[in-house]
Each structure stands twice: as C-alpha cells, then as structure tokens.
Amino acid sequence: MITVRSVSGSSQSPRSPSSQPFLSVSVTDPVKLGNGVQAYISYRVITKTNFPEYQGPEKIVIRRYSDFVWLRDRLFEKYKGIFIPPLPEKSAVEKFRFSAEFIEMRRQALDIFVNRIASHQELQQSEDLRTFLQADEEMMERLRSHETGIFKKKPADLMQIFKDVQSRVSDVVLGKEKPVEESNPEYEKLKNYVFELENHLAEAQKHAYRLVKRHRELGQSLSDFGKAAKLLGACEGNALGKAFSELGAKSETLSIKLQKEAHQLLMSFEEPLKDYVRAVQSIKATIAERANAFRQQCELAETIKLKEINLDKLMLTRSDKVGEAEIEYKELKAASEEATNRFETIVRLMNEEIVRFQEQKTVDMGIAFHEFAKGQARLANGIADAWRSLLPKLEVCSS
Amino acid sequence: MMGSENQGFEEAHLYASKEEMENLVLDEPLNDNKSHSNYRSALSSLADTHHPLSPPVAATPADSDPLLAPPSYSDFGNPSIHDNSYLDPPSYADVTFSPFDGDTGNDINGIESPSKSSDNSGSLSRSPSSSSEYIKITVSNPQKEQETSNSLVPGGNTYVTYLITTRTNIPEFGASEFSVRRRFRDIVTLSDRLAESYRGYFVPPRPDKNVVESQVMQKQEFVEQRRVALEKYLRRLADHPVIRKSDELKVFLQVQGKLPLPTSTDVASRMLDGAAKLPKQLFGESAVAPHEIVQPAKGGRDLLRLFKELRQSMANDWGGSKPPVVEEDKEFLERKEKMHELEQQLSNASQQAESLVKAQQDMGETMGELGLAFIKLTKFENEEAMFNSQRVRAADMKGLATAAVKASRFYRELNAQTVKHLDTFHEYLGLMLSVNGAFSDRSSALLTVQTLISELDSLHSRAEKLESASSKIFGGDKSRIHKLEELKETIRVTEDAKNVAIREYERIKGLMLDDDGI
Q1: Are A235 and A264 in contact (CB under 8 A)?
Q2: What's the CA gap between B392 and B390, in Å, rounded?
Q3: Where does this protein have coiled-coil stretches (chain B) (predicted)?
Q4: Which residues of chain B are within 8 Å of residue A245 when distances are taken between CB atoms?
Q5: Min Cα–Cα distance to chain B from A191, Å
Q6: Cα angle B97-B102-B108, degrees, rounded to a multiple of 5
Q7: Is B359 in contact with A221 (Cβ distance < 8 A)?
Q8: Is the predicted ipTM greater than 0.95, yes or no?
Q9: Which of B10, B18, B393 sits opposite A365 (nearest CB)?
Q10: Residue A33 host element (H or E)
Q11: pTM for this one?
Q12: Cβ(A152)–Cβ(A77) under 8 Å?
C-alpha cells in the first residue's frame, strides 16, 4: 500500500514527533448510509497535528466523497500553478458502486489524496483544508451544497468568464483563430510530454487491469478443474482415486492463492498506475489554467495599449472625459499588473511542481513495481511449492 | 514505508526459493532415468493384468515429469471401433498450432515437437513387453492432387494426399521401410472396414471429418491439423496388438496406388438397395445370410431385418414378457454404469482442462502486452527526459518490462506442457467412445439373437398350426404341404442364423471378459 505520511518542511526529516510540526491524516471506516438511490458511503477522517492554526491535537470528522470534491475544487481555484492531487473518479456502474473492492479502492485513493495535500508545503497551509478537516458535518453540508451547480464561481469570476467568452468571440470575428499562446519552447516540450505521457500510461494501466482479471480467471479455472479432478477420482478406486483427489485439492488451494494475488495486484499495482494517470490529468488542468492566465495577461496588455492611445488623444483634445479615462487607465494598469503577477506565479510554481512531481512519481512507481515483482514471485513460488509437494504423493501411486 | 524487517525477510525467502527452483530443473534428468525404469516395470506387470484403465494412468510416466503420461492403448487389450465414432479435437489443440512470435517460436517448437511429431513415447516402444517389435508411422508432406476421372467442372475436384511412411521390423510386412500416399477418404474406408472386422474390440476412433472446419479454417492450418490427427490415429492403430497385424492396416500402409479395400456406401444408397430387396423378402424368401448376421442391422442393407430388430427392441422395452435371452451378467451391467459415470466425469474434466489452458494462455498474453506497454513507456521517458528522476524511473520500468516479457514466455511454455499432459483426458474420452462402441456392439448382437429367437418361435407356431390344419384333411393339402415345407426350410435357415448370432454374441462377451476381468 502506498501511504504518504506528511512531513512539514520538505527538506527536513522529523527528529522527534512532538517538537517538529506535523500534520497527519487518515481516511478510514467506510460506512454505507441512506437508502436506495440516495445511499452513499461516509468515511471517518482522523487528523493528528500540532499546527497552531488547528483546534487541537486530534480531530475526527465524518466526510463523504462530495466533500473531498469540494476541497479539491477550492484548492484548484486558490492555488493555480500547483498540481492539485487527483481524486478517484465519480462512481461508475451502479451495481459496482457498493462492492467491497470498489469501496476499498476509493478509500485508499482518498487517503492518499488528503495526505498529499497535508504534506505539500503550500497546500498544507490552506484554510479550506482546515475547514475540511475540522468543520462539523452541518457546516460541511452547507458549504458543499453552496458550491454545487454552475454557480460554483463567485460573481467576480462570473464576470471574468463573460469577458473571456467575449474576447474569444471577438478573436474569431477579427480573424484571429487561435487563442494567444506562449512561445516558450521548453514549455511546449513539457506540454507535449504531458499529453503523450497520458496516452502511454493509460495503455499500461489498461493492461494492468486486464492482468488482474486474468489472475481471477485463472483462479476460477483452477477451482473448477480441481473440483472436476476430485469427481473423477471418485469414479476410480483406491490409489488412483486418491491421487486425483489430491490433485483436485491442490488445484483448489492454488485457486485461492490466485484470487488473493489478484486483489493485491489491483491495490498495489493497478491503482497506483491509475493514480498516475489521474495525476497527469490534473497537470493538464493546470496547463489550461496557465494558458488562461497568459491570455488574460495578453489581452489586458492589448487593452492598455489601446487605452493609452485613447488617453493621449483625449488629452490632446482637452476633452472633459480625460478624468474618467485616467481613472479607467489606472484601474486597467492595476488589473494588468495583477494578471501578470498571477501568470508569473503560475509559471514559477509549475517549475517547482514539475520537479516535485517527477521525483514523487519515481518513488511511487518504484514501490509499485517492487510490489508487483514481489507478488508475482510469491505467487510463482507458491504454485511451484504446491505442485512439488504433490509429486511424492503421486509417485506412490505410480509404483 | 512498509515494515522494512518484514520486507527484507520475505525477500530473502523469495531469493532462497529461487535457488530451489533452479535445483529442481537440474534434477530432471535424474527423474528421467528413474521414470523409465518405472515405466518398463509397470508395463510388464500390465501385460499380466489386462486391467483396462486403472494402472496405465498411474503407471506410465514416460516423460521426464512423472505426473501423467499418455496411456498405452496396447495395454488395454482389445479396443474396438464404432463407425459413428467421432471426437472433436479439444479446442485447446489450437494452442499447440497457433503461431508464436518469431523469437519465442524456437523455444516453444523445441519443446513441442517431441509431442507433435517424433513423440517420446513412440520411441519408447509402447508394444507389449513380449517382443521388441515396433511399427513407427509418420504422416507428412501434404500435397494437392486433382481428381482425374469424370470431372464435369474444368479444373476439377482437388483433394489433399498425405505421405505415410512406415518403419517396422515385423516380418509379416515383408519390408522394413515403405511409403504410400493416401487421402482422408481412405482413412474413413480403413476405419469402417476395421470396425466390421473387429467388432467387439476397443478400436480407436478415427479423426473427425470436420466438414465445417475445412471450409472455415485457413487451408494450411486445417491441413496441418488433419495431418497431426492422422498421425496420431495411425500410431494408435499400430499400437494395438491385434489390429497392427490386420490385413486392412497392412494393405493400407503398403499397397501403392488406389486403396484396395471395399469402400463404404453412403446411407442413401444402402437404403435404396434395401428397399429393392424388401419385396422379395416380404414374399417369403427371407433368408438372412449368416455373414450379415454378425454385423449390426443398422449399418446394413437389410431393411426387413432392421424392422424386425426394432420391433424386438420395443417389445423388450414395453412388452410385458421377458425376452428369451437377457443380459444376465450383473457384473457387466455394473461396469457399464461405472463406465458411463466415468465418461461423464472425464468429459467434465476435459472441459475444465480446456478452460484452464485458455486461462493460462490469456495470462501469458496479457503479461506480454503489459511488458510491451512498459517498454514503450521506458523509451518515451528516456527520450523526453528533463530530469534525472525520469531516467531512474525509466530504468525501473525497463526492469519490470523485461521481467514481464520473460514471464509471458514462461507462461507459454507452461501451457505447451499443460496441453501435452492434459490431452490425456481427451484421449481417454476417445477411448470411452471405443468402449461405448464395444458395449453397443454387444447390445446389438444380443438384440439380433433375441429377434431371431422370437422369429423362430413364431415360425414354429405357424408350422404347428399348418400341420394341425393339414392333418385334418385326409391325404394332405397340396398347397398347405408345400407351404409347410417352405416354412420348415425357413426355420432351418433361421435356426442356423440364430446359432451364428449366438456365437457372435458369445464371442463379444468373451472379449469383454478378457478386458474386464482382473
């Protein structure tokens, strides 16, 4: 299992837990609540910390999936440029939604999600995180329902959306088909890398999932075969019959081993790969944000230029509109600076994030591969041992 | 991140087991010698026991792995054939035929070919311990040939012939090595003639005609599949201690040119022939030739006989009274029940074996695909690397990919072995068919006896009636006397036929006693 325990101040390793600041979270105890279509799973989220901003050393709250989504969305809004840890997908097929396996996979993914936030230097300071970890259930519900629907964004952001649409439309009208993009070759390379990486990873994950299925199928075959061998042994007598039932019993034992390994494979290998894919998708979202920020910056720069020209014109003609125009100009200047700041922050953060991401992924994958190899070796040994132990029993029969 | 002590311990354990595994491989040659001696001694004890099924499965470890080995039919005594016999080759036979990747092909072929053509067990001589006689048959070199005579269609009818090479030291063959070209139709003829000549024996079933498959499959694949099946069949015939000396087989293997065995006629023409004879039979000249009595009514031309036996069998099932002769051997009936149960379980086990093989095949394939996907990823990360962490990851991935591809190859090897060994189930199923054939030979022989006895009874009572009727007329009734004489003649012939039928039935019973008795 991959667990990411938080360490605050990433360059320092904790010496004694009590003196170093720490924030540790676990997501446990999935419980099904509600009935019928409205049924959902709730999780217990346990926080242990000595951060001063927190209410106490330990806090337990009950959260559901949509609360996690709320947290992710808030972080995404506030911390543009940072790769927000990915969430497991919304539930798939209805029937599967409450299967023990699905619930366990989701719980593990949610646990990793929160812990990644808690161990990220910037994200761990987030107020929304504190709310998520500490607020009581009613408050959480209020916040959650407030944020749902298309009115997720605040009014100011809504205006921005309209402005974006407006400018995009004018671009098209004016014949500018492509939105303005950075012309940074290194960044281009990164973007291409991210997009291609997603494809490769998705394929690997697909095969990993199929491999899990194959393990299950093989397990089932061995079980059926074992039963058939036993029945066949019942037809024969004495030594031969006994040999067959030994064979059948061994086969059934191996079937159990295979089912176990299938589960292991799913949790320790396939899930991490899926998590990797999700992480890359999160990066894509950040890339989109950066593009947005860049465009805003460009447009504002354009607009300012026009306004400057206009202002000069007005000043020359000594129009009484000069005052107004000057105020507008100042506002625009401020907005432009803000946009530039935002963009540059994103760039800076992304550069840091990409390094962190690559290192983290190497570690994660290393663990996943190790688990995979271990599991397969264990399985192969188990199978070899089982059959080997059968040989002497059969030789007795054949002499 | 995880309990490091546990991790270290478990891994140490894994590495240790790896050594064990390698040692196991090294041991195999030793097992080989051991198993050979087991085999020989098992075989000599078998010649005494004649137990049809039990010992061979356990007692013939012909391969290096003493788990299971293909059974020797010769040890069963006298297999019999049924002309309706068919057995679909197991669907996992495709596993053996499917083309492998070029680089693994050699590995697999190196392991498979023993089971495919040269056949370890063949060279170990399956013949009974009594002599060092051997017959080794190979089927090879399929060629397309043209139907020469009466082809209305230009370009005519083409068919495939196979080269059948025999090596033997049996004196009756007159030569030690010879070849002949035969087509599949010839095999059908051979098998039908053997069925007639060796009624009551466990004769191995011939390969299926596979009419559908021949249209649907790729020509090359189909021909290859058939070649293998033919080789297997002919080898089984050669292993059978009685059949290997048969004229039919000799002629088949040696005589050049057209196969000089009478061909089987199809059902339609048989029925037509039978219909032509029927009026004569109904009008009194119902002489049943003794040589036909020894064959079941079903495959023949004598419709009248067919009807009579059918009536008799219905009387057996539904009639109130017991038929004159019954299957009294309780032991036989018990054994028949057991055989039926065994057949069912064998069929079930064979099916499960098939799905096991498929599951293993799938596993190997997916493992290989996973490996390939990671190799692509490795290349990608290496090409696009901007950070050292990426290179490290790429190296890890490469390790995983290589291992996965290797594992995939091992699964393929495993499967090839599994197919080889589990094929035994399938062969036993084929044997079951022969056994069933022998059983039904016995039943049909019995039915013939019963029918003839019933007929004799009714003929006798008719004769009595005629006698008493004609004795009432002084001096006799010319026409009645004539009829009486005819009837007496019929009775005599039928009496002969009855005796032949009884002898045949007893013969078949005797064969089974030989087989089943311990």
Answers
A1: no
A2: 5
A3: 332-359, 449-504
A4: none
A5: 11
A6: 50
A7: yes
A8: no
A9: B393
A10: strand A23-33
A11: 0.68
A12: no
